[in-house]
Known about the structure:
A hairpin with a 3-residue loop joins strand 2 (30-38) and strand 3 (42-50). By secondary structure, the protein is an alpha+beta fold. 36% of the residues lie in helices and 25% in strands. A three-stranded antiparallel β-sheet has the order 1-2-3, covered by helices on one side.
Amino acid sequence: MSMAELVAAGAPELPEGYFYRIRETSISNLMVEIRQQKGRWRSKLIADTYVIHKSDVPAEESIVRACERVFDEVQGADEERAAYRATTAFLGDHDPRGGR
């Protein structure tokens, strides 16, 4: 399944340079990863989640749901990092006389 097919099925579209990898784990489960391309042959794992199989849900929908979960995880992490960076402006000693 290509990235375009995943997105057409409902998976969130990733920014340029990122892709989904769907792989089988050693315990016979599927895992969805978001990876960042690093050069021609290498990539870096950003986040991953297991595909949850349910008998009443089609396989494609289970994979799309996993893509949504891992995408939401990455988005939440970005927001947490931004909130942390905003608080770093307050680092340091706060002198009651106005100095730092």
